Each structure stands twice: as structure tokens, then as C-alpha cells.
Amino acid sequence: LFSAVSRMDDISKAVTLDAKFAGDVVCAAGLTKAELGGSEYFALLGGVGNDVPKVDANFAKKIYRAVSSATDKRLLHSLHTPALGGLAAAFAKIAIAGRLGIEIDLDKIPHSGVKTAHELLFSESNSRFVMTLPLKNLEEAVKIFKNIPFAPIGLVTDTQKLSVKSLKFNEANVSISLDKLIKSYKIPLCKVLML
């Protein structure tokens, strides 16, 4: 299905997930829905849930073509798909990998049918991307993603913190140091290695 869409002829155009430059814009592409069924979030809570992510093949092809075009034009500094763990895990991984802070405005994330911050942060909806890019490339990126849910949702910073804010979801206003994120990320692996 995606072989012709996702083929990359020039490996030098590949984009890694780590944030690279303070001042870059963080953008979200794709639509977050209230799809937590079978998610890492529900597994952590000891549940399963009912609303599992559904794939829309036509939409998926459209967004993958747009992402391919953006990477081909070298517009992006980083790119990640928020699969396991949803957007919350994606933001953390991007910040941890780049050792840079990120400020996110949850209210700007393209979504449909989402009623809580937990749904927005931990949904595992398909065919979504989080990317960072220089401000000078934003206008061209907006054109490439013009028929796809797409929005600038934050900034890469040198604060060494992942900060999430929302006027709609007060409980989502949090700020976590990168040190704490890194420690949390490594703890499970340490426990496994000690067995």
C-alpha cells in the first residue's frame, strides 16, 4: 500500500526524531481522535478500552505523501510518529533525544471527538506526525499539508523542560525537567538489566 508513497531514494534526506535547534517550531500533522482502546495508557491502568485506532487508508496515503514531500525538500529538522504512548510519549522522546526543551499548547493540536486531556495526550490514532522545523520553513510546510489537519503547536527551547499548557484542559498544565524524563525513561531498562 505505501511502497510507492514512502520510498526514499536519497538516504541523506532521512530525518531523525531528536529536536535539534532551540527556536524551531513544533508542528502536528494528522488528526487525534479519542482512540485509547488497546493503548499503552490503558495498559498502564490495567484496562483495555473499546475505541481502538482505525486506519483510513486513503487519508494515510495522503499524509505520507505530504511527509515525503516535506522530507524531500529538507524542510524538517526532526520527525516522529506518535504511535505507542501517543503524543505525550512522542513529545518526551523528541525532547530526551535532542536534550532540548519543548513547549506545547495542547489547544492547537488538530483533533476530533476528544473530550479530555488524557485522550488528547495518550490516544494512539494512526497516521499522525510530530515534526520540528525552522520558522522560515513553516509557510512552505503549511502549503504542503494544506489538505491535512496540520498546525504549529509549540516551540523547541533551551529550558531543559517539557512544558504542556492548555486553557481548555487545566489539568494538562505541567512542566517536567528533562533530567526527570530521562531518569523515568531509563528506569525500566535498568530494572531489566538487574534481573
Description:
With 195 residues, the chain is an alpha+beta fold. The protein has seven helices and nine strands. The strands form two sheets. Strands 3-6-1-7-4-8-9 form a seven-stranded mixed sheet. Strands 2-5 form a two-stranded parallel ribbon. Strand 8 and strand 9 (174-177) form a beta hairpin. The mean pLDDT is 89.
- Poorly predicted ranges: none
Question: What composes the largest sheet?
Answer: 7 strands, mixed
Provide the helix percentage: 25-40%
Quickly count the helices. Answer: 7
Compute the CA-based radius of gyration.
17 Å
Number of strands: 9
Proportion of β residues?
Answer: 15-25%
Rounded mean pLDDT is 89
Given the helix and strand composition, which structural class is it? alpha+beta
Compute the separation of the termini in Å. 42 Å
Strands in their spatial order, largest beta sheet: 3-6-1-7-4-8-9
Morphology call: globular
Please write the string of helix (H) and strand (E) elements.
Answer: HEEHHEHEEHEHEEEH
Give keywords:
globular; 9 strands; two-stranded parallel sheet; alpha+beta; seven-stranded mixed beta sheet; 7 helices; 20% strand
Short description:
34% of the residues lie in helices and 20% in strands. It contains 7 helices and 9 strands.
List the topology elements:
Layout: H1 3-6, E1 25-29, E2 32-33, H2 40-44, H3 57-72, E3 78-80, H4 86-98, E4 101-105, E5 111-112, H5 117-122, E6 129-133, H6 138-144, E7 150-157, E8 161-165, E9 174-177, H7 178-193
